[in-house]
Structure formats: C-alpha cells, structure tokens
Amino acid sequence: MPDSSLLDPQAIANLRSLNPGDNDEFLREIAGIFLEDTPLRISELDQSALAGDIARFTRAAHSIKGSSANLGATSLRSLAEKLEHQVRTQGLADVAGLVAQIKTEFGRTQSALDALIGK
Distance (Å, rounded) from C-alpha 16 to C-alpha 33? Predict the structure, then answer.
C-alpha cells in the first residue's frame, strides 16, 4: 500500500470498490486522468500568476484540490486548499512558495501512484 501521507489508503480502497474484480483498471484510469490533468493545472497556476489573473489561478488551485481529494492525495489536496484560500484572501502576492510546494508534492504523489498502479 502507498505511503498514507501521500495517498489515503481508504480513498484508494473506495476507488477500487467502485469496480471490484477489474484488476485495478478503473483505478489506473482515474490515476491516469489525474496524472495527465494536474500538470496542466499547475501550468495554469504559473501562467495566471504571471498574467495577474486571480480568477483563473483560483480555478486551477480549486481543480487541483478537487482531483487530489477524489484520488486521496491528501498532502497535495491540503496544499492546493491552502493556496486557494490564500489567493482568495490575499491575492496573488507571495504565491510562488506554495506553487513550488505543490509542484514538489505532485512529483511525490506521481511516484506513489506509479508504484501503486505498476507503472
């Protein structure tokens, strides 16, 4: 089982229970979508921060938060939630540090998912 600080074992079990007996095909599909989409959302964070587009930045952070929660990527979800809250209350000033943390945490989460689904 993956490191529970990165991937919540209960969330993984819940995903597996949605399509039991499929040799983790559903889990691999969900993980694949997450691994494909999240870098795009992270890129949106960078682009919208440079452009000063708070609405787009907030949507990207919210999307990362939601998809991380669905997959049980608890630490990444927590960072995205913190970033979303910070932007809503303080604007785009001082977001670089949290965005860097999200990038690092996504890399760790990606490695944990790759190990889990046998990539």
Answer: 16
Please check whether residue 2 lies inside any domain of the structure: no
> What total number of domains does the chain contain?
1
Residue 84 lies in a domain: yes
- The whole domain housing 63 covers 9-117
| CATH number of the domain enclosing 29 | 1.20.120.160
Question: What is the distance in angstroms between the CA of the first residue and the CA of the last residue of the chain?
Answer: 15
Q: Is residue 3 part of a domain?
A: no
Confidence of residue 4 (pLDDT cuts 50, 70, 90): low
Claim: this prediction has a pTM higher than 0.90? yes
Tens of pLDDT, residues 44-97? 999 999 999 999 999 999 999 999 999 999 999 999 999 999 999 999 999 999
Residue 72's nearest CA partner among 1, 3, 9, 2 is 9
